[in-house]
Design goal:
The complex is a heterodimer of chains A (279) and B (437).
Chain A: H1 2-30, H2 37-41, H3 61-73, H4 96-104, E1 107-111, E2 118-122, H5 136-142, H6 154-157, H7 161-170, H8 177-182, E3 193-194, E4 202-203, H9 226-241, H10 245-273
Antiparallel strand pairs in A: 1-2, 3-4
Chain B: H1 14-22, H2 25-33, E1 38-40, H3 49-68, H4 78-87, H5 92-119, H6 128-150, H7 155-168, H8 175-183, H9 190-219, E2 237-239, H10 240-265, H11 295-303, E3 308-310, E4 315-318, H12 320-333, H13 338-341, H14 353-374, H15 381-406, H16 416-436
Antiparallel strand pairs in B: 1-2, 3-4
The chains are: A mainly alpha (279), B mainly alpha (437).
Chain lengths: 279, 437
């Protein structure tokens, strides 16, 4: 009885699925789905040889500091970093005094100790980066109806994050003629910018890094080309997203070495105990 | 509860004697996983995965309890509290990555454990109850994992909760009230997050309880083995300790090695980037997908694209969405009936030539379903998942009962020991032959 009822249920589901399949296959053959412009022109991120790639990779402190400089001078006009505390900038190689100065240069929201009214004060290392806009409405109003996202986790919130950010920053271009020929309706809209690395190809952000020397790097640092600045800020955003990466990888190496030894010992004791027992 | 030749527990130290009279807990442990539990001597490495599943649960419990000390189940701060764990809690990144990847590894281990049972006929008499309890554990795991994935309150958390509770909305008439009742509102919000956290903390202990029943039920007939031939005498078994504790020790080492590779060197490989974006009810992700371990079932859910109608009248009996929901639940619930569907008296797939072929097909089929479930709901993935889902149901509900009735199994070994000795004789024979050359 169980088998009979089961077979009926199985025939029903399998039958419905095969019917759906046939129906879908006929539709697919008679009217193949049209290719979308995203499908045709979206590109996967370019691969950069990051210092933090691989199981032994580590951050390049000088690069992170340059990236922080790019963030401060360019990105921070619109993008916040509100998961990151000033104190953690010490990991980039800044001294305590430098961290204090960085924090102090920014106004953070607080309450006036005398009146209790909302007020701002210079930041201290324990503060996190303040928001750029008080709320989403203000963000939209200032940016042509687009919200500049917080960048703290951007490098983990996109597939292949660091490469993606680098590719996006260096990927702005004019819309290919071929695209407009194939998809005449897909012309980049007013106030948008064509970028094949962005999911739907058009984004509101204007090219933020446009000219060599937009940021002045310190002595002994590489030339601030657009490509260099894009790499540096992408590396910096990888650090903001995964500040514990170096601790993670070095702990991992020690753990793997320990486990290898332990597993070999466990294997030997297994062989030893079973030595006289065929199995 | 055990074979008559099993070693008896005899406390030697006066304290242990005293203990044994008052509360024979050491005796219980000795009989359960010590020298008092006799196990077939021929278990292969697939038999390591039960212990590994228990270990994975332990990892989840330990990391989870500590994470709960730092996590805040409130829609306004949940996302930030997870980042607080990642950045400011001592070794918080390790706890969270171990917990998130631990869930994946729990499922990897349990899927291997389940397929072991499917191939070697572990669900057959006299072990039906072990199998039934195992499916209960699997269902509890799925519920726990789903609710745990909601807690970080990222985009996939939020929209996953919306989609999965939305499955209940497919039930006619009472569906939408049920969804509202489950969520405590019209959309996932604070009420949902709080109850999911509460249940996510509760269910693992329920799982632990059912695991005790699962092992208890296993120890009544004793463990199965790769030949599927029952234990005939003392020569067929070895005591669990030290033989299988040693073998499991090696298995645990290998498990932790692979687990550590994921946690320390690719901790986000099995997660979705969208969950690093805070939950936003106003913005729907392009592709809502659950965690990978739900993909085969998600593919079955989405494979139903046609309403069940009365032909030529346009009257819809069952809408496609409800069909998908019913099929998805059926795809798991049918496993409860497996002991009575597959009536072949031969347990082990090793001796069933026809079954073996279909079993390999089933594994490929489930992998295809998994791939389709993770892919966007576009062609050709929908069509492929329709064929694969059809085979899934056909395999369990039609093919298994049919092949059981006319398959001619290979000859079984007379006993476990006979099989073991035949194998080792074969092996030594080979070495002799090579030496002779």
């Amino acid at each position: 009885m169980v088998r009979f009822l089961g077979a009926l249920v199985g025939l029903f589901f399998a039958g419905m699925l095969l019917l759906s399949f046939l129906w879908g296959a006929v539709a697919y053959v008679s009217a193949p789905p049209a290719e979308t412009v995203e499908h045709a022109f979206h590109e996967h991120p370019k691969k950069v040889a990051w210092s933090f790639n691989g199981p032994l990779g580590h951050y390049d402190r000088a690069q992170l500091q340059r990236g922080f400089q790019v963030y401060t001078e360019v990105c921070s006009a619109c993008h916040s970093l509100h998961q990151v505390a000033f104190r953690s900038l010490g990991d980039l190689g800044y001294s305590e005094a430098e961290v204090k100065a960085i924090a102090k240069a920014r106004q953070v929201p607080d309450v006036d100790p005398k009146t209790g009214e909302a007020a701002t004060r210079p930041g201290i290392p324990a503060d996190k980066f303040p928001l750029v806009y008080p709320n989403d409405v203000a963000a939209r109003a200032a940016n042509n109806n687009a919200i500049p996202p917080d960048l703290s986790l951007m490098a983990k919130a996109r597939h292949d994050g660091a490469n993606y950010i680098y590719s996006l920053l260096t990927g702005y271009q004019s819309q290919p003629a071929e695209l407009l020929k194939k998809f005449p309706d897909a012309k980049t809209g007013e106030g948008l910018h064509y970028n094949p690395y962005f999911a739907n190809l058009n984004l509101a952000m204007a090219p933020p890094l446009s000219a060599e020397g937009q940021v002045t790097y310190g002595e002994g640092q590489p030339k601030p080309t657009v490509d260099q600045m894009a790499q540096d800020v992408s590396a910096f955003l990888m650090w903001t997203a995964e500040p514990k990466m170096e601790a993670r990888k070095s702990t991992g190496v020690a753990v793997i070495v320990f486990l290898l030894i332990a597993t070999v010992l466990a294997y030997m004791s297994y062989q030893n105990i079973w030595a006289n027992k065929e199995h | 509860m055990s074979f008559p030749w099993a070693e008896h527990y005899t406390p030697k130290h006066p304290l242990m004697k005293w203990m044994d009279e008052k509360l024979p807990l050491p005796r219980f442990v000795y009989n359960a996983v010590g020298g008092g539990y006799e196990v077939p001597r021929n278990l292969n490495y697939f038999w390591n995965f039960g212990v590994l599943a228990g270990l994975a649960l332990t990892v989840q419990l330990v990391t989870g309890i500590i994470l709960a000390m730092h996590y805040a189940a409130n829609g306004a701060v949940a996302f930030d509290s997870v980042e607080h764990i990642m950045r400011d809690v001592n070794s918080g990144w390790l706890l969270r990555y171990a917990h998130a990847n631990g869930a994946s590894f729990f499922f990897i281990v349990v899927y291997i454990h389940i397929f072991r049972g499917l191939f070697f006929g572990s669900y057959k008499a006299p072990r039906e109850m072990v199998w039934l309890l195992g499916i209960v554990i699997f269902l509890l795991m799925m519920a726990t994992a789903f609710m745990g994935y909601v807690l970080p309150w990222g985009q996939m958390s939020f929209w996953g909760a919306q989609v999965i509770t939305g499955l209940f909305a497919a039930i006619p008439v009472v569906g939408e009230p049920i969804q509202t009742w489950l969520l405590g509102g019209f959309a996932p919000g604070n009420a949902a997050l709080n109850r999911f956290f509460s249940l996510h903390y509760l269910l693992p202990f329920v799982i632990a309880g059912v695991i005790i029943l699962h092992i208890w039920a296993l120890h009544i007939p004793g463990s199965s083995n790769p030949t599927g031939v029952e234990v005939k005498g003392p020569q067929d078994t070895v005591p669990f300790h030290p033989y299988y504790t040693a073998k499991d020790g090696f298995g645990v080492g290998v498990f932790f090695l692979i687990f550590a590779l994921a946690v320390f060197f690719a901790p986000n490989a099995m997660g979705h980037p969208d969950n690093y974006i805070p939950a936003n009810p106003m913005s729907t992700p392009a592709h809502i997908v659950p965690e990978w371990y739900f993909w085969p079932f998600y593919a079955i859910l989405r494979a139903f694209t046609m309403d069940l109608t009365i032909p030529f009248t346009g009257i819809v009996l069952v809408p496609a969405k409800l069909l998908g929901v019913l099929a998805m639940f059926a795809s798991i619930l049918l496993l409860f009936f497996l002991p009575w569907i597959d009536t072949s008296p031969v347990r082990s797939g090793t001796y069933r030539p026809l079954f073996k072929k279909f079993f390999i097909l089933l594994i490929v089929d489930v992998l295809i379903l998994g791939y389709c479930g993770g892919a966007p709901a576009e062609e050709p993935w929908v069509m492929i998942s329709q064929l694969a889902a059809a085979y899934y149901f056909a395999h369990f509900l039609i093919i298994l009962p049919i092949i059981a009735s006319f398959e001619r199994p290979d000859p079984l070994p007379g006993s476990i020991t006979e099989a073991v000795l035949a194998k080792s004789k074969h092996k030594t024979g080979e070495t002799v032959a090579i030496a002779a050359e």
